Amino acid sequence: MGEGWSIKNGIVAREGLRPGSINTVAQYKDFELSFEWKISHAGNSGIKYRAHDSLGLEYQILDDENHRDGKLPSHRAASLYDLFAAPDDKPIKPVGEWNSGRIVAKGNHIEHWLNGKKILEVEYGSAAWNAAFAASKYAKHEGFGSWTGSIHLQDHNDKVWYRNVHIREL
Predict the structure, then answer these.
(1) Which domain holds residue 104?
(2) Which of 82, 145, 146, 164 is most buried, by the most CB atoms less than 10 A from its CB?
(3) Domain tally, the chain
């Protein structure tokens, strides 16, 4: 964990300069990850999973209204970054307030949850997956999304906070 991250009173915070992402040592493929998060004004972060090095699926953490990535639906909060957009009517709380998130990855099945509501569900290898993958920046990475890999709390130069992070292997 880089010096720009801190853990105080059960809250993991990215507040310093260029600390890098926090990566698990353990490798996961089938798991359920639950967490709470809040983002700073115009902030950007994410939770990458099934990752190899810095490349992995990502539950996007973003201030949709004020960050430039908010213009792209598949880059908005709780989306499966650059692949599948969270719906516009997702139950997100305002910047600076705690949201709860959940990722379920089991075999080819992937789910993203936000504040108790399943907002995204996709099957790896389905027609929808193959079309989104082919149109994404990941298209040249064979097997992307199917790997066993680490989980990352992403450093994107912005303040972000996480708490109540729990993982359960499935």
Answers:
(1) 23-169
(2) 145
(3) 1
Report how far residue 45's alpha carbon sits from residue 81's, in angstroms, rounded to the nearest whole number. 11
Number of H helices, E strands in the chain: 1, 11
Q: Is 64 left (phi over 0), alpha (psi -120 to 50) or beta?
A: alpha
R_g over Cα of the chain = 15
CB 73 within 8 A of CB 20: no
Read off the CATH number of the domain in which 65 is found: 2.60.120.560
pLDDT tens digits for range 47-96: 999 999 889 999 999 999 999 999 999 999 999 999 999 999 999 999 99
Closest C-alpha among 149, 152, 158 to residue 21: 152
Rounded to 5°, the CA angle 49-53-56 comes to 30
* Confidence grade of residue 22 (pLDDT, cut at 50, 70, 90): confident
